[in-house]
Each structure stands twice: as C-alpha cells, then as structure tokens.
Amino acid sequence: MLRRPDELKNLLRYALTRILLTIPMLWVLLTLVFVVLRVMPGDPVSAMIGGHAPERVIEEQKEKLGLNRPILVQYFAYLGDLARLDLGNSMIYNQKVSQPLLEKLPATLELTIVGMGFTMLIGIPLGAYAASRRRTGRDFGIRLFGNVAYCIPVFWMGLMLQLVFGIWLNLLPIAGRTGPRVYASEFQKTGFYLLDTLIAGQWASFGDVAVHLLLPSLTLGIVLSGIFIRLTRANMLDTLKADYVLAARARGIPERRVVYGHALKNAFIPVLTMLGLQFAALLAGAILTETTFSWPGMGRLLVERIYLRDYPTIQGVIVMFAFFVSIVSLIVDLTYAVIDPRVRY
Amino acid sequence: MASPETKPATAGARYSAAGAVARLLGRFSSARRKYGLEWWILIAGAAVILFSIYLAAFPATIARYDPLDQEAGPQMSAPSRAHPMGTDNLSRDVLSRMIHGSRTILGVAFAAAILSSLIGIPLGLLSGFVGGALDRVLSLVMDSIYSFPGLILAIAFAAMLGPGVVNITLSVAVIYIPTYFRLVRGQTLSIKEELYVEAARAIGAPRRTILGRYIFPNVIATVVVVFSLNIADAIMTEAALSYIGLGLPAGIPDWGMDLSMGKKFLPSGVWWMITFPGAMISLLALGFTMLGEGLSEILNPRLLEK
Amino acid sequence: MNPEPILQVRGLSIAYPIAIGTVRAAEQVDLDLSDGEALGLVGESGCGKSTLGLSILRLVRPPGRITAGRILYHGRDILGMRENEVRHLRGRSITMAFQNPLTSLNPLYRIDRQFLETIRVHEPRTSRAEALARAERVLGDLGVEPRRLYEYPHQLSGGMRQRVMLALGLVMDPDILVADEPTTALDVIVEAGFIDLLNRLRRDLKLSILLITHNLGMVAEIADRIAVMYAGKIVEVGVATEVFHRPLHPYTHGLIHCVPNIRLDQDKLATMGGSPPDLVDPPPGCRFHPRCPHVMDICRRQEPPLAPPRGRFEGLGAPAASSAVPPKAVVQPPETAQRQVACWLYGGGS
Questions:
Q1: Of the candidates B148, B160, B274, which has its C-beta nearest A29's C-beta?
Q2: What pTM was computed for the model?
Q3: In terms of Cα–Cα distance, which of A150, A112, A167, A140 is closest to A295?
Q4: pLDDT at C327
Q5: Residue B80 forms part of a structural domain
Q6: Which of the 8 DSSP states describes residue B70?
Q7: Contacts with B18 (C-beta within 8 Å, 6 or more apart), sequence order
Q8: Is A343 on the interface with C (CB under 8 A)?
Q9: Is some CB atom of chain B closer than 8 A to the CB atom of A308?
Q10: Looking at the domain assignment, is residue B76 inside a domain?
Q11: How far apart are CA C254 and CA C235, in angstroms?
C-alpha cells in the first residue's frame, strides 16, 4: 500500500497524538492500582502478616514501607517512584522488585504473544467461515464450539490438555519452558527462548523450547478464541450485507476474494479493537496458565509472592500489568489507523 | 399489518412499566410459537441452572456422603459404583464434594452479581440522567476499571482483603460494577432523548417519575441478560481465585480448590480429581451463558437474520 | 438499432421467504432488451424492480431465490450456467451500477487498487501499467481526472463516486449496463450530468442499458422503450414516447399523471388512491384491481396476461398535460407491434 507524502504526514500526526494520550491513560490505571492496594480497610502489612506478629513488628514494617505517612504523600511518592522506574524492594527477599520481574517478563510475554497468535489463528478464520455458511450445520457447530470454549476455565483446559497429551499420550511436556537436558544459559539473550535458540543456531533446543510452549499457548488460544469467533462472525455478517460486497460480486470478483479480501478486511477493524481488550483477558489467563504449567513468568511470580505476603513485589507485578495494558491499547489504535484511512485526528 | 385504529391503544401502553412487562411476556409467547433454536438454547440453559439450584438447595438427595468426611472410602480411588466420581487424596467422596460445592459457587456468584448490579445500575442511571461533571468523573473511573484485566483486579482485592466468603464476594463483585454502569448509562442516554420522555417532561413530570416509570422499565430487559452472563463470568472468576489459593477456608467445599489439589496428583494419572470439578464449572457457566444468550435473542429479536 | 434482443427474460419468478410467508417479488416476468437499446423499468418502491435487476446477474441474495424462468443472454440461459461462467459475465459482459455510490465502493481500498483488482480478475495477465492506462482512459471518458485514482472513496464527491463506480463497471467494455436507481442519492444537477453521460455512452460505446428507476423524468430522457412494473408483474411495455403520450394501463396513466407539471396551474397534486399490495398475499385476479378506477368484474377473478392491446379505451383521460412528456413528441406515432399491456380493458385474449 503505497502512501503519498501527505498521507504519511497525517498518519504520523495521529500516531504522535495517540502516543501522548497514553500518558494520562496510564496515569488513571496506576491511580486505580494505588487505590486498590492502599486505600483499603486496614493496611497491607496487617493483611499480609496478620494478627500473628507483635505490634512492634507490624509498626516497623509499616515504617519501612512508608505506610505511616498521610495518604496523599504516599500517593505522590508512589507516582514519583514509578516515574523514576523504581519499583521498590522486596519485603521477603533481599532484592529489588524489578529484578525477578524483568527476569520473568519475557516468559510471560512469549506465552501471551504466541497465545494471542493461536487465538487469532483459530478464531478469525472460523468466525469468517461461519459467517459465509450462515445458518448451516457448520455455522452452528462453530458457534457451539466457540461458546463452550469460552465457558471452559482456562486452567481446566490446561489441566485436561496436560492429562491427554502429557500423561495419557505422553507426547508433550507439561511443565516449564525447557526440558531436563537443555540449559537456558547456553542461548539466553533476550529471554524470548524461541528467538534466542534461533539466534544461537541451536535447533535441538529450539525444538525443545517450542514443544514446551505449545500446550500452554494452545490452552490460552483455544479458550479465548470463542470471543473472536463470535465477534468475527457477527461483523462479517454485517459486512457481507454491505453494498460494496454486492458491487464487488457484480464485477465478477470470485466469492472467496470477496469474503476474505473485501469483507474480512472491513470486519477486521472492530475485531482489532477487541484484540486490544482481549489482551487484558489474555494476561489474566496467563496468570492461571503459568500456575498450571509451572511456567516461570510474571503470573506465577505474582501467585508466589501473594503466598509469601511480599507486598511490594505484588504491587510491582500489578503495575507492570497495567503498563502492558496501556501499551497494547496504543499498538491496537495505531494499527487501526494504518489499516483504515478514515481514522485521523 | 396494524390498522390505524389499534395503534393509539397500544402506543400508550408501550411507555409504562406495565406495558414493558406485557411486551416482555408477549415476546416470550411468540418465541415459543416459533420453536426456534434460540428457544431451545434458553430452555437448555434454564434446565441446567434449575438443576444446579436444586442441587445447591437439597444436596443430600443425591450426595451420599458428607463432603468433609475424610473416611468416606478408599484413598484416591478411581470412579466406581460406590463413588461414581472417585475419591480424593483425603479419602473424601468427589461426587458429594461436587454437589455441595455448587452451593458455594452459586452463592458467591449470585451474591456478587446482585451486589454489582445494586451499585452499578443506580450509578449508571444517575450518571446518564444527570450528566455533566458527575457523569464525566464516574465514566472515567468506570472505564479505567473496565479496561483493566478483571481477574488481576480481583486478585489484588482478594490478596489485600484476605480469605473468607465475604471478601471473595466483594472481590468478584467489584470488577463487574463498570459493566452494569456502562450498560445502564448508555441506555439511559438514548432513552432520555426519546420523544415520550420529552413529552413527560413537558407536562411537568418530576425527575423521579421519569426515571422510575419510563427509563427504568425499558432498561430492565437488557439488564436481565447481562445479569445472567455476569453470573457465568462470576462463576469462572470465583473458581480462578480459589484455584490460585485466594479463596475460601479449607472447610468449605469448593470446585476451584479441588482443582488445584487435584493438579498435584495429575502426574500419577489421577484424572478424576480434576475432570469432574472442571466439568462442573464449565457446565454451570455454560448454562448461565446459554440462558443469557437465549434471553438476548428473544428480547431483542434480530428479524430474519442470524 | 439491431432488433435482435441481446437479453431476453422469460417467465422469471423470484420469491423470498420471510417469517410470515413468502414474498413473491416477481412473477412470470417477460422482458426484452435489444442491442444498443435503453429500456426503462419503472415502478414504485417495493414493486420488485431492483430484485429483477439483481437476478439478471444471479446476485439475488439468499433466502431469496429465482423460482422459475430463463434469462437468455445472446441465446444462452444465465440461470442454467455454472457459477464460474456467471462470474465470467459479471463486470465483463453485463455490468451493474448501484444506487448508493458511497457504500458501493470499499472504503478501505484506494481507487486504483479497485480498478486493478477488477481488470486482473477478468484478464489476469494484464500488467499494472496497462491496467492503470485503461482505468485512466475510462475515467477520462466519464469526466474524472486521472489523479483521482490515487484517492480513497471518502475523499470524492457523490457525483464523482458515481462516475467512478460506473467506470469500474465499464472498464471491461461490457455489452449491457443494468443501472439500479443510479441517481437517487445525487442532487438534480449532478443527475442531469449523469443523464447526459449515459446518453453519450450509449452512442459512443454502443451500450445497452436497463435503467431501473422510479424517476419518470430520467426515463423520459434516456429510454427508448419503457416497461412498467407493478406488484411483481409487468403491466405495460412500449416505446417510451408512445407510453408517455398514450398510457394504456390505468396504473401507468396514474403514474404519469402524478408527476407535477410546472407549466400548469395546479392547486392540487394528483395522487393514486390506495397503497401498494402485500406481496406475500397479493389480491386475486389483477393485482391492481383494488386501486383501479375502471375495475370490472373479471379483473377481480382473473389475472390479465401481458399481450398486445385489442381495441381502445377512451376513459382514461389525458395525461398529456404532464411535464414528464418531452414537448417535442407531439405527433402520435401509430401503435406498434411492440406495445403490450396486461389489462382487461384491452381484451387481453379471453
């Protein structure tokens, strides 16, 4: 799609505006996190340590975390720390919060991205196909599949897949990112093992990593495809009724091209928006999937630290999630603008 | 084709609460006449729900053992005649745990949905009706809650509040408030602009009347659908929270918790501890989803299409 | 003008099922279109004329179906062809222009891309440069500058979009253009330009046009012959000037009479009583009989066939005062053999 200079200029202007808008959006989310984690009945320390510790210890901890200061002061300190990218120190281990977080971040991202890929790969074509075969048996079958998939808890799907493919058929691994004789240190660079193994040229390790990634991301993909099937189908049905579809058919354009080239591209736009919203659901699902597959990512970190009552790390992980939600929303809007020439500020 | 004579009589009825109910019932009976797929989906969903409510209310009729009884049978035995769903690692009968667990999960989901709607609907009505700065502030808050991944928010709440049935219910309830808010606010905004509301205002009807008599009944239909879907979602969220370990104390039978326990024994090939709890969660969620979808089709029929 | 019909419709019936019954959109329709001729198909909204237009290229959407009849193009039945043979015809031999040019062009694709696609679907080995040259040529014929190729539909004005859509249809040099209400969405000045355009295309490209519209004024300026449709049936056919001067069917008479005449001092506009019939359960006998001021007993019982008129009926009154009639056609030509009417007033073959 060649673009003329003034088209590019428009696009850039939109992109810049949108990027700048992310800042207030992020701010609202971070405030929300703050409210949830601090402005609650009682305080985090009591909630974490509970009534088992003596008064003195609780007060000490509160002092250390700065929880005795007035709420507004805490709020601005919180924002200030975040602006300097300082997530604080762990209450349990002797480490900065950011350390385990950054370590585990690529694992979650890799899982989420591949999961999203599967979701789209399964959901969108099925939805488009169901729309083109409206009210036939195949349409109902696909819709039923979508509905059922959506109602299956993602962790149960994971467990069942583990049962079938891991235990009964013994085909695929059910835990971790790598197998017993593969050492991540040999290729670790970006943390995205699929990339790292390719860069390092270690094909065997690539295979191992891919195979470990398969079940967890497929779990995510199948469960979330339900929404995409339904949305794509609904949008396709509307789009297929459009005048330009009729006009395209009237010019002799083959049906498959009309459906996938003309209709789907237009129907894709609201689907794209949904993608952004679904990423949030995907992150949530990732937490559950990581727990099920012992995947060393941010989700499992969160659950671990909740169990350990490590409040600063918990906050750090949630802040990270908020950040990603904003970024993905930004990316979706930008992609939207690239595809649809009518969108400009 | 309605002749001109019949129109005025029904037109007045359309805009009152009684009229709204009459319309709803009318739609049901015409849907039944059509015997379409949507009707059967509705029936299927309702059947599942009624059955599970029955189980929750009268568990002893089917469950043969006390769900907490740790000597109900052999330890970790596969499904058999005595224990159709097997026993778990603490020698408890799985079937009994499933049946009693329905009470837990339905209770939390219902309570959370009711709480969410009790907060979200009035706020939505208020915000849409009054508008102005209040509307803008509320919308901003609600939109930001809505855009945040629900489960993560619930986890944050549950982690901060601690274990217990009430806390879990609160955690689950919070994330759905924006759903009701947005829905009701949107509807209020569009109904507010309708001609008959303007007419009511012109004859001096107080705001209270307008809200209560005109806007509210028309909003109800959509709310019912969302309520059903909300419960489905709440079921899944509650299960997820207990699966992670943020849920209820050990004494209460809970499907999510059973799943997380069963997970430990999966590598040994113990499949019944995870299959049944998960299937129950899915079934229940599916039931409420189908009810909601069926209701949606009937109350907002899409003529000819779909 | 070559009298050999390039398109012949015989006994075409189209129906589509809805919740309360089956809509009979067209029933036993017969039509002929000669090479180089412009045929106007007129009727009220909902009389089935648009559906008829779509059926020629087999574009009737399910659940609508063509239930009977044949559509012969150069003697070959379109309804009997395989799907990809029909596809071959579309856009290349027979083309359509639609009512709403904004929604008829895919908003996401640039205009040149839409041309390239159309040309390459029919002639895959055309190079990009060749295809663009052809596009520019046909756009030029229609009065659109080449630079518009590099714009998106929403950047063009309504009239220009209509021309672009027409150009897309004409780029493959078709024989027949089926235009379905092409100017309804445009203002009258643009419409006038469009009418001139169509006339010029007919002359220069030897294009046969089936113009489907309810706009009698437009028909008067383009059409050689007119077919009048009512409730899914053709009720009158004839040379345009003859039909305007001496409409035979009471419906046609009423239709023409309803067009206001700027030269007359009219304090009341003429209307036709009643409303269009229910196509699910049409009236028995002649479908127009409930509204006909000259209804007879036989009209209520039996449907009159479409046939050449026998005898004359003077009771209709003179619609010649209507401004729809071009002022030049003062001389009344003799009734030609092409005239047909479906009305018992003319003794339709009992």
A1: B148
A2: 0.73
A3: A112
A4: 46
A5: no
A6: T
A7: none
A8: no
A9: no
A10: no
A11: 13
